[in-house]
Design goal:
Number of helices: 36
Length: about 900
């Protein structure tokens, strides 16, 4: 059973579908996730705090200690039986949809999906995503697998609706008098109870079911009632486990009253959209139990045991069963699933968690490592049981106990810090975390902690060892947005540890009195002595991460590498951006067994490749995947900037999303002419330039010092007029070693050079000649650049080139259709109104004079990555830094 928070809002499931259901549903869910969870968590936390503000932590410990081991084992057995009942969902749906799975696979898949969904929730999407990935990997058709998981996702919450109706029938709606009015509680329960007829309508009506879930299957009213019965049994067993946990802790409750309290708390947990309902479900049930005259400590102890036996232990078993099952699927598989879900209002929401589910096993291991670190810190701050300490002192000297307590704090901080690397599947982090877990387990036993703590650490180490082959990455970005959240969690954890000891013991700590005292019963002294180690471990980790953490190492593009690249280009040919690699600002990847060459650069958490791979077009697909693997080994996002339209299918199949960056102008050199009416404007400009005494000349390197001085003067005047610096990445810069590698054209007025433009050959063949760096003096006569470009195109024709490349017109042709994506429409707005920052239209208008063939160029980036930040990063890469983005070019 997926408890609480595992489904969509029932009211939303039966709502009428909008015109664009998938996008609107995703937007609605996003807003609900932003607004509802924090609000409900804050409200329930405040109410719970008001109810338990006199909470005695020692009473909670006493309530937990009173539970006999036999009773605890019985509770665990009951919880495992309750979780096993959830296999009935998969058994019935598999029979109905004729999905052939062996019993062992059915049970294994069901257990992994259900226990993970219990813990994570994500509105039921976690379990659904796992089922789809597992079934499709077994050869089940994607549509069948989606229908299979969707039916279960819709069926799980319906049992709670039946229990809500039972609570309403008993008239138990005044659950939190003085906190919520009876009508508010009644409204929430009635809204959720309405999901029962919605579900039965979905089951009985094939057309309605097809609107929600793709597929032609019909469950039928009888099938719907069967699923209702399975779901009711599921929720009843979960409620029974919770009731028995509270009973074991000394809470004697009327079953009817507990039914009403449990169903209302579970309903709030579902509606909160908080993973697992953690916080909302627990706080709400705690408040209602205190109103039923259960002491706060007893209620908290029962809920803690319930979370342990029903959520955590079954999930650990599921994590073991799921070892290797949740490996990241191939990019084409991700792309196929995304295409399938694109037009489905319910399954389309699964796209929000696809990448998370794909590596769920290791990601949850990262959270588990984080939890072990918290456990070690908490046990160091909480008072040890005196009888256990006394038994240890019979075989160990007191300094050994003191040292183990002291060191366990450092191990705890390091495990919390390492959890991020485990989540990112970094090999070196795994090699450090494994011995730390074993050492932490040993220290837990030596300092007198409960044996279960040491066993838990060893169990986590075992799970980590089972997934050892999953750790393949070499590094990860330390200052990425997501890693900063983990660092914040680390700082908050250590800060909480610093504040936890005084709150638990309720003592006035005085460093002078306790610092040097060492007695078996002086837990406060041991805690105080461990504080500096916690702070030092935190500061040391942060310093190591900032200054010493291994960074991605990419090959240096020195003179030897450039010489090798020139030989390679001569043998394999280049393309539009081939010559730009001689800028030396990009790394080079020889991919597909040396048949392709990719030039790339890193910016923040991304590896950005310039253009399509160079070389053998038949090997482009392999080269793209190889570049993506390179980025993945360092947890960086792979991006291809300005790729051609004819190769888009390769990026699509590799799991990339596509965004039109603009259009590139190519002039057919053989057809270029100045004659005819449509060339009148260009012809007029060229004739005027000739009358002004301008002449164009092609210069082959090397050049003398006087020529270099004249070129540098033109470039400096150009940059000064525009108030900016040199560009980079996809544009050349005024660099002598770079410019000396290819010919350039200059325009002279008399003997003075007033303008120039560098050329970019395509190597090996005469397919394309391009223009790169182009600059002129501010006082150059009008029409100078028209004249220069005309002579360059005519020169390309004389040399036998097929095309002359005028370069990009950024954002040209983007977002013109009324069906364009929102981000494309925003880009169109920038194109229409962003002249102050960049003269988009002016650049397009200038190139239009030469009547080019416009070819679209695209940015290929990983699915579901935010596009605005990507565009900012690329703009900074081209502009030469983030400070240059807003400088007028």
């Amino acid at each position: 059973m997926t408890r609480p928070l595992k489904t969509l809002d029932p009211a939303a499931a039966g709502a009428a579908l909008p015109a664009d259901p998938n996008r609107r549903a995703a937007v609605l869910l996003a807003w609900l996730r932003r607004g509802v969870p924090p609000l409900l968590v804050v409200v329930t936390a405040l109410v719970a705090w008001y109810e338990v503000k006199g909470f005695d932590f020692h009473t909670l410990r006493s309530a937990l200690r009173r539970i006999p081991w036999v009773a605890l084992l019985g509770l665990q057995a009951l919880a495992l039986a309750a979780v096993f009942e959830m296999v009935l969902y998969d058994w019935w749906v598999a029979r109905r949809l004729k999905v052939n799975l062996t019993w062992d696979r059915l049970i294994r898949y069901s257990w992994v999906a259900n226990t993970t969904n219990n813990l994570i929730g994500l509105s039921g999407l976690a379990g659904s995503g796992i089922r789809i990935l597992l079934l499709t990997r077994d050869g089940v058709a994607t549509r069948v697998a989606s229908l299979y998981s969707g039916v279960i996702m819709l069926a799980v919450p319906v049992g709670l609706s039946v229990l809500v109706l039972a609570a309403l029938a008993m008239g138990r709606t005044n659950l939190v008098p003085g906190v919520l009015p009876r009508w508010a509680v009644l409204s929430v329960l009635l809204a959720y109870a309405a999901y029962l007829p919605v579900f039965l309508t979905l089951a009985a009506n094939r057309a309605v079911l097809h609107r929600v879930l793709s597929g032609t299957a019909r469950l039928g009213l009888g099938g719907g009632l069967t699923l209702v019965a399975i779901s009711v049994l599921d929720w009843l067993l979960a409620m029974l486990v919770a009731w028995c946990c509270l009973l074991a802790c000394g809470a004697h409750l009327n079953p009817g009253a507990f039914l009403a309290a449990f169903t209302f708390a579970a309903t709030l947990g579902v509606l909160s959209l908080v993973p697992g309902g953690i916080g909302v479900f627990d706080a709400a049930l705690l408040v209602m139990l205190t109103r039923l005259r259960v002491s706060p400590a007893t209620a908290a102890a029962g809920l803690l045991v319930f979370r342990l036996v029903y959520y955590l232990v079954p999930w650990l078993i599921g994590l073991t069963l799921g070892t290797g099952l949740l490996a990241r699927p191939a990019a084409p598989a991700v792309s196929r699933l995304a295409r399938l879900w694109q037009n489905n209002p319910l399954l389309g929401l699964l796209r929000l968690v696809l990448n998370f589910i794909a590596s769920l096993g290791v990601r949850l291991l990262g959270l588990l490592i984080f939890a072990t670190g918290l456990m070690l810190l908490a046990s160091a701050a909480l008072p040890s049981l005196e009888d256990r300490v006394e038994r240890l002192l019979l075989v160990l000297p007191l300094p050994a106990l003191e040292l183990s307590h002291f060191l366990s704090v450092g191990v705890g901080v390091l495990l919390i810090a390492l959890s991020r690397g485990i989540d990112q599947q970094v090999r070196s982090v795994y090699l450090v975390a494994m011995p730390l877990l074993v050492v932490g387990a040993l220290l837990s036993l030596l300092k007198g902690a409960a044996p279960g703590q040491g066993l838990f650490l060893l169990a986590v180490a075992g799970l980590l060892w089972l997934r050892r082959d999953a750790f393949y990455r070499l590094s990860y970005p330390f200052l990425s947005r997501r890693n900063l959240l983990w660092l914040l969690a680390l700082v908050v954890s250590v800060t909480t540890f610093v504040l936890l000891g005084p709150w638990v013991d309720g003592e006035d700590f005085t460093w002078r009195e306790l610092w040097f005292q060492s007695q078996p019963h002086l837990q406060a002294a041991r805690y105080l002595r461990s504080l500096p180690l916690a702070i030092v471990a935190l500061a040391g980790w942060l310093a190591w991460g900032l200054f010493r953490m291994p960074r991605p190492v990419f090959p240096v593009t020195d003179d030897a590498a450039l010489a090798q690249a020139r030989v390679w280009l001569g043998e394999h040919g280049g393309g539009t951006f081939a010559h730009l690699l001689f800028m030396g600002d990009k790394h080079l990847l020889y991919a597909a067994q040396g048949r392709c060459l990719i030039q790339y650069q890193r910016v923040r958490g991304r590896l950005v490749a310039l253009g399509d791979p160079l070389g053998d077009a038949a090997a482009y697909g392999s080269a793209v995947l190889e570049f993506r693997d390179l980025a993945d080994r360092h947890d960086l996002d792979p991006v291809f900037y300005e790729v051609a339209h004819e190769h888009l299918h390769l990026y699509h199949d590799a799991g990339f999303a596509l965004f039109k960056a603009g259009e590139m102008g190519l002039v057919a050199a053989a057809d270029f002419t100045l004659t005819g009416r449509r060339n009148q404007t260009l012809r007029t400009g060229v004739n005027r330039a000739i009358r002004d005494g301008l002449s164009a000349e092609r210069l082959e390197p090397p050049w003398d010092d006087a020529t270099w001085a004249a070129l540098k003067a033109v470039s400096a005047a150009w940059l000064q007029e525009r108030g900016g610096g040199e560009k980079g990445f996809s544009l050349g810069a005024f660099d002598q070693s770079y410019l000396a590698r290819a010919p350039l054209y200059v325009v002279r007025q008399g003997h003075r050079i007033i303008a120039f433009a560098s050329l970019t050959p395509s190597y090996r063949d005469r397919l394309e000649l391009g223009v790169d760096l182009m600059r002129h003096l501010p006082d150059a006569p009008p029409g100078t650049m028209d004249f220069l470009f005309t002579r360059m195109i005519e020169g390309a024709r004389q040399e036998g080139y097929t095309w002359f490349n005028l370069g990009m017109a950024p954002l040209s042709g983007v977002g013109k259709s009324r069906y364009a994506r929102p981000d494309e429409r925003i880009a169109r707005l920038a194109y229409d109104s962003g002249t102050r920052l960049y003269n988009y239209k002016g650049l397009r208008s200038f190139k239009e004079k030469f009547h080019p063939v416009w070819q679209s160029r695209y940015i290929a980036y990983p699915l579901y990555r935010p596009l605005p930040t990507l565009l900012v990063d690329i703009a900074a890469l081209v502009a030469g830094g983030y400070r240059q983005i807003l400088i007028k070019s």
